Amino acid sequence: MKIPARYTVPVFIITLLLISCTTVPLTGRQQLNFMPDSSMLAMSFQQYDHFLKSNKLSTDKRKTETVKRVGARIQKAVERYFSERRMSHKLDNYSWEFNLIESKDVNAWCMPGGKVVIYTGILPYTKDDAGLAVVMGHEIGHAVAKHGNERMSQMLALQLGGIALSTALSEKPQETRKLWMTAFGLGAQFGFMLPYSRIQENEADHLGLIFMAMAGYDPHRAVPFWEEMSQKKGSKAPPEFMNTHPSDKTRIKNIKLLIPTAMKYYRRYKDVRSPASS
Question: What is the pTM of this model?
Fold first, then answer.
């Protein structure tokens, strides 16, 4: 039986939903993700290099070393987390990198493959290593849970008809790059920011607390950080970080409920703790 043309796109999307599901680490949630890891990583590395060339790296040696030090500890925690669950293959071809960008923007993000950027504008809010670990753990949580891939898949399916990423890049490069930057929290330059869903936020919070705890940072530090960011969001001009990361009393309440679980990891991995990590 021939399917009427008006049903072609819906049927195609339904088919994608049925055959393109992956599982989020920790939660086990099924997500739409038909983006090949090889394509995502290749584009991530390309876009990340372009971003670094187009923006100014911080010349503050102390702050830069702090970002790289905390980042390296979170990286090791993520690798240990996946190794213990026999999922190290999910981090294949990762090329971790942590950079501090000179900018007043209160923002941070992580692209696929462990490509992390911290803006100097967020450091007054993180205050110390543990505060920075809250941000990095959360952003890396989004990346390893493939939330950006999930959003990119959804946008390609709805806006470009579900064509392959490589095809989209060759046939509609400008539109595809716009989708990419929006999916990974860089959409401000296009005048549009796409918030993560509440489910994705909760998953990133959960993973982030575990990662920072395994790295030796007290997960209790997350509460005052998000409380301060929530207050900042209430101002007339909320930071970009809060445009893509909604925060409210319910979210902070959920984080408090997650802390006891994260503390089990904190106590278990006390061997990686140092005086500077508190």
Answer: 0.80
